[in-house]
Design brief:
Elements (H helix, E strand, L loop, with lengths): L1 E2 L11 E8 L2 E9 L4 E3 L2 E3 L4 H10 L8 H4 L7 E7 L4 E6 L5 H10 L7 E5 L9 H9 L9
Parallel strand pairs: 7-8
Antiparallel strand pairs: 1-8, 2-3, 2-6, 4-5, 5-6, 6-7
Length: 149
């Protein structure tokens, strides 16, 4: 887990939601102020999931500029989610194994996250399955840990 204290972030109107990153930029984002988020246990989440929002972007023609290899599936590009935890009064940026520190900086700026209580966590849901080392690990990982039922 990485703390965000090295990043300069706004403190006003922090947001929760989803994002995609391409060439060091957030190219798609769906977010709401944390006060308008959806409670999920002790967490507050955005309104959209990656799969459904990707379909909306496709229907609106907003994916056309991407190379063809990235257009077909929502998981083709690095992506993640920002959630707020009410019990710890903290934000968490969930991301995959293919984001850089610069990408995380861009997320903190775009979502107006406070540096004093924001953490970053790799989450299996956002991992790049084309990464050979990661793909090999899936074959030896217990199914319940790999996200399969």
């Amino acid at each position: 887990m990485l703390k965000a204290n090295r990043f300069f972030c706004k403190k006003e109107n922090p947001e929760v939601g989803i994002f995609w990153i391409y060439h060091g930029r957030i190219i798609f984002k769906n977010s709401v102020p944390v006060e308008q988020g959806i409670p999920y246990g002790e967490a507050i989440n955005g309104h959209k999931d990656h799969c459904d929002y990707w379909d909306e972007l496709d229907e609106q023609g907003k994916l056309e500029w991407l190379p063809l290899t990235f257009r077909s599936e929502y998981f083709s590009l690095p992506r993640g989610r920002v959630v707020y935890h009410r019990d710890t009064n903290s934000f968490c940026v969930l991301h995959g194994n293919n984001v850089s520190l610069w990408d995380l900086y861009c997320v903190t700026k775009s979502f107006n996250l406070p540096k004093s209580n924001t953490t970053f966590e790799q989450d299996i849901h956002y991992f790049d399955l084309s990464d050979k080392e990661w793909k090999d690990l899936l074959y030896v990982m217990p199914k319940h840990l790999a996200g399969f039922n």
